Amino acid sequence: MRNTRIRVPETAAAGDIVEIRAMIMHPMDNGFTYTTQGTLIPVDIVTDFTCTYLDEEVVHVRLEPGISANPYFSFRLRALRTGKVEFAWVDQHGEKTVAEALLTVK
Amino acid sequence: MIALSRRETLLGLAATFLPLPVSATPSEVAESIVSVFGDRPIAEGPIKLELPALAETGNSVPLTVSCETQAFGRVRRLAVFAEMNPRPMVCVASFGPMAADARITTNIRLASTQDVVCVAELEDGKLITSRQSVRVVVGACTTLPGRY
What we know:
heterodimer; A: mainly beta; three-stranded antiparallel sheet; B: six-stranded mixed sheet; Ig-like SoxY domain-containing protein (chain B); SoxY_sf (chain B)
């Protein structure tokens, strides 16, 4: 389980478009860099990111080594009713990191 | 004896010191597009790629991809490719029923000055593409050891 930072507005009006931001702390080693001792750092990346709202998918991203360290994503969803916004990251070893926030719709 | 001009000497010296950057060939880029979407015709389309004109480091370049969906219907998937990266595929984003629009912001790595290509798959299966050039001062693969 890695550290994550997510930002979901606390409240929104029904039908509003709200911006979601999510970031996970991960080195995203791309397999082209060396340590100061000259040994190659092997590839170590997050491969999948999923965001769901009301148990339905908002966005799913397949990540490659071309994504920067500490992958950050920002996207928009349409607020329908009060519910959980859930985030899940899976790295190449299968380790899953989850986070969630409550979006209250007035 | 070969007479070398000052310019030739400097160019030759530069060629010895600068390592040749590893980069994908255009056919590899085409292959990776085919590996994501299959072998289908691609047309130019109104995808907007927001990138800085000049990126000081290739380690983290902010990128926003958005697709005007009004005239085209929903966008199912968006894939981003960096043509000169050793591995051109950067990410593939698919939008679910709860997404408000086909728009995503992230930070990408770029190996050198190059074009970033985005391919979008629409709901009817059509593919559209767009590209944006970006100048990179220090590439992500040539930076000194250390994590950013």
